[in-house]
Structures are given as structure tokens and as C-alpha cells.
Amino acid sequence: MTSERLHRCELCGVIIAEAPADTSGDVLCPECTDHLSDAATELLRRAAHRVRDLGEAAESDGWTVGGYLVYEDDGGVTAACTFVEDAAWIAMMSPALAGHLAAWLEWSASPPLEPLEQREALALARALLTTPP
Ligand SMILES: [Zn+2]
Q1: Please, which residues have CB less than 5 A from ligand 1, an ion?
Q2: pLDDT for the residue numbered 1
Q3: Domain range summary for the chain, segments of one domain joined by +
Q4: Cα separation of 33 and 14, whole Å?
Q5: How far apart are CA 94 and CA 6, in angstroms?
Q6: 92 Cα: distance to centroid of ligand 1 (angstroms)
């Protein structure tokens, strides 16, 4: 039996058998060391696509908070919340942000960023792709 430890690339999630040679503490697969891997790039683009699709399918922008409710001006969107802070959060994340968020995710999928500079974008992309449809 081997005592080899397996590692997971912090960016694309691929399993790697050997620890990284550098001592920065970052665990990156060989592909992500120089540029973002195809898997990580695809993750960012899928998240951008999902955000854009959901935003375009949503009722409207201009969501506002009224007490524990989030509503769109013509009354087409209403969400009841237990806490007003939740309502404020939902209203802030209205479909008006979808295009900007998708553009940022797509931009993060492309050079000239260094792979580690894309870490937060990848974390966001994973979260966006694991939320319920
Ligand atoms: Zn990787």
C-alpha cells in the first residue's frame, strides 16, 4: 500500500497525487499553475450562463423592500421574508445584477488574470451552480 497523499487543486478541483513543488501553500494542479484549467474555465462560463438565463427569465429589475417584503414596482414580484435584512438582501440581488455578474464571471474565465486571482470567482461560480434551480 502506498503512503502517497492525494491533493485537490484549489481552483479546478481535480485530484493530484503529488504535492505542489512550491511552498506558497496553494495546491494547484499542473494545468492551473500557469493558466486556469479548461475545467475551471468551463465552470466560470456555466455559472455566467446560468446567472444570465435566470436573470433574463426573472420578472424585472427595480426590486425594492417594503417591510418584510420584496416587490417589483408593478406588483409582479413579491417575496415575503422573516427578517427585513433578508428582504434587503433579496432586493439587492435583483435580476438587474444578472448581466453584470455574468460578465464578471466570463471576464474571470479569461486571461490576463493569474489563476489564483480567479479563486473568488470560482468559489462564487460553484455556489451559483449548486443552488436549487
Ligand atoms: Zn487545477
Answers
A1: 9, 11-12, 29, 32, 37
A2: 46
A3: 7-110
A4: 13
A5: 41
A6: 33
SS (H, E, C) 89-113: HHHHCCHHHHHHHHHHHHHHCCCCC
Centroid of ligand 1 to alpha carbon of 34 (angstroms): 10
* pLDDT per position as a tens digit, 45-65: 999 999 999 999 887 767 888
Q: Is 37 left (phi over 0), alpha (psi -120 to 50) or beta?
A: beta
Its pTM stands at 0.77
- How far, in Å, is the centroid of ligand 1 from the Cα of 100? 26
pLDDT, tens digit, 9 for 90 and up, residues 3-37: 468 888 888 888 888 765 555 678 888 888 777 88
CA 30 to centroid of ligand 1, rounded, Å: 7
